[in-house]
């Protein structure tokens, strides 16, 4: 997973990126969730919930879910620090945008979710 994750992160300095696979349900969703975890600091379940707002069929298989959980506890902070060091200031406020997305989907304000 980490090799593919690094390829996705190459696009960190761009305002958006594309990650896809044949079905777009498990593998590509896992990469997007890991990316969101890294650039925002959200946990894997929150990141997956955000993906499901825009892609309801998103469903990493159990093996990928375990990898996301492990990534959250062992490597996400390290990758986040590396990206911040590499790219300095990020002009985007991804975490606030995702919290707003989750809030709109649940009918709660983004500030209430923090």
UniProtKB/TrEMBL annotation:
<dbReference type="GO" id="GO:0004725">
    <property type="term" value="F:protein tyrosine phosphatase activity"/>
</dbReference>
<dbReference type="InterPro" id="IPR029021">
    <property type="entry name" value="Prot-tyrosine_phosphatase-like"/>
</dbReference>
<feature type="domain" description="Dual specificity phosphatase catalytic">
    <location>
        <begin position="22"/>
        <end position="73"/>
    </location>
</feature>
<keyword id="KW-0378">Hydrolase</keyword>
<dbReference type="GO" id="GO:0005829">
    <property type="term" value="C:cytosol"/>
</dbReference>
<comment type="similarity">
    <text>Belongs to the protein-tyrosine phosphatase family. Non-receptor class dual specificity subfamily.</text>
</comment>
<dbReference type="InterPro" id="IPR000340">
    <property type="entry name" value="Dual-sp_phosphatase_cat-dom"/>
</dbReference>
<keyword id="KW-0904">Protein phosphatase</keyword>
<keyword id="KW-0963">Cytoplasm</keyword>
<dbReference type="GO" id="GO:0007165">
    <property type="term" value="P:signal transduction"/>
</dbReference>
<dbReference type="Pfam" id="PF00782">
    <property type="entry name" value="DSPc"/>
</dbReference>
<protein>
    <submittedName>
        <fullName>Dual specificity protein phosphatase 22-B</fullName>
    </submittedName>
</protein>
<dbReference type="GO" id="GO:0004722">
    <property type="term" value="F:protein serine/threonine phosphatase activity"/>
</dbReference>
